[in-house]
Amino acid sequence: MATPTVPAPDPAPQQPRRQAAPRRSSTRTSSRTRTRRHRITALLLLVVILVAGAPPGSAGPASPAAAAAWWALDSGPFARSPRDILTETSPTGAVRVFGDHPGQDARTAARETVDALDRAGGLDRRVLSVDLPTGSGWVDPDEVTALERWAGGDIASVSVRYSAAPSAAVLLLHRDLAVDSARALLHEVVDRVDRRDPARRPAIVVHGESLGAFVGTEVLTDPRLDAAVASRLWQGTPGGAHAGAPTGPGARCTVADLNDDDPVGQLSTRLLVHPVQALTVLTDLPGSENRPAGSGHSYRPVLPPAGCVR
């Protein structure tokens, strides 16, 4: 900003000052606006990083600081232990199997979990629900019980916990854990079902909420896995508002449920050029998962569309 010149003594010495003042105020306002936009962009970039996570082939935290943060969130003082609905007895007589295997190789964890599912008679049920959890291992209890009632108890639900860290930390520091776990579990389930007599194969339903939906849609780009699934139930997919309608052979049997006011569903690189909308989304994120079901990042149960499960 140019420095105002000192006017020479004349009958109207104040005129130059009055002209310069608006320019100074305008410059300061413009500077504050740029600073505010920079802060919004920085916050938005952080959220985008949390959603986009590391590349699919990431080996996890690369720096000592990141490794220490991961330890604190995954197995240290900030590790989460949410309600594990699949460790509780089903009131309808359904089979529930929860593989609690943080830190274990994904294939081994999947094999041991499906072994337990087989021993419990889960592969003999009419429907087999593969529940892809959030980062802490949480599976929505309301969704599990709704599916059990819908199936009249003739259903088995299975899930694997690969970490006790929250979803944002998994996406930022160890996205490979979530992807590898989901892929290994689905491969193991599909392989076991394929070995059975066609007349005794359960219909496979895959459900994922939030991080589970984010990972599930990625893993089911594998044509073999996707073809083996009778119905896909996705809720609160991060960035789902910009994903478009489901396509492909399984589109009719896919449910993509996203609340209109879910800020997680709005997370996208598109927000980088819309700072006002970005600020609204970031403001709405905290506590959105604790809203009443059907609003924010909290969901009512969904069921497979009619005719998708034999």
Which key terms come to mind for this protein?
alpha/beta; Rossmann fold; 310 residues; globular; disordered N terminus; 9 helices
CATH class category label of one domain: Alpha Beta
Secondary-structure content class: alpha/beta
Proportion of helical residues: 40-55%
Mean pLDDT: 81
Largest sheet: 6 strands, parallel
Total helices: the number is 9
Query: Count of DSSP E strands?
Result: 6
Q: What's the CATH topology name of one domain?
A: Rossmann fold
Q: What is the H/E string?
A: HHEHEHEHHEHHEEH
CATH architecture of one domain: 3-Layer(aba) Sandwich
Q: Largest beta sheet: what is the strand line-up?
A: 1-3-2-4-5-6
Pick out the low-confidence regions: 1-25, 37-46, 48-59
- What Rg is obtained from the alpha carbons, in whole angstroms? 26 Å
How would the global form be characterised? globular
Distance, first to last CA: 73 Å
Strand content: 5-15%
